Amino acid sequence: MLKAKIFVQLKASVLDPQGKAVTNSLHNLGFGGVVDTRISKYIEILFDSADEAEVRTQVDKICDSLLANPNTETYHYQLEAQE
Amino acid sequence: MRVSVITFPGSNCDHDAFAVFSSRGHSSKMIWHKDTDLEKPDLVILPGGFSYGDYLRCGALARFSPIVNEVISFAKKGGLVMGICNGFQVLTETGLLPGALMMNESLSFICKHQLVRVETANSPYTKGLAVGSVLDIPIAHKEGNYFIDKEGLKTLEDNDLIAFRYCDTKGQITRASNPNGALKNIAGVLNPARNILGMMPHPERSATDTVLTQDGRRIFEALESYYGTIA
Lengths: 83, 231
Prior knowledge:
A: Mth169, Chain: A; three-stranded antiparallel sheet; B: alpha/beta; nine-stranded mixed sheet; two-stranded antiparallel sheet; 5 helices
């Protein structure tokens, strides 16, 4: 089996109000060196296949059609073999 | 007019829309998202609410409901489709309208009266309205912060596809009158063929005598006036 570890992130050109709020909170906590925070989504999907090429094709389709909004988000992922 | 209002799991403004159109004498139908027949409408309403619990992204999962394929083919043939609030989010997620609705700049759910300025009279939804006129139509959302890339914004502006912008009492587009951080105060947009409208404010919540403002009626009257010219 293969596990896809997928990160869906806001494009750099898109404002991230949640990230901004977290930056402010970190400043309030005394972490004055924090310049920026970006909030992303992390998604794990388990596949009943050991064929990396095939799973990559599927993950690309899954991300393009559902997990990421191409208007505002980008994605990247790693595959990991599972017992 | 024959009006079909779609109900997704989590829709909560479907009955309001149905009631308003019914009370105006239109033959209105409630259509369940698993149905595959729109029942020959003149107008489809994608209502407000929290379809699929807003999981993943607002409107993202509703796009895979069976009825949405019918809505897409109806819209592509020029049928009138109006998405209100969550319905607007569904329309951007399906690609029927450009852009995306992001979380409000304040990170808060906002429910209040809101003034919007009519930006174009060239649409079935704003026909006969004076450009620049100000309507008081309530908003209620957490993800209404409209975003579109520079190129997309230019297309919207060059083709007169912005229907409404958030404004102040004088109709001025100001930072202070922008409730959610929406780019250029955009509150509603049209597709290039102008048959699809998405808007964050809720006209169905300002169209009866029992509420504080009746400005939403102006949009329904515009639709009726447009329909009168094509029927």
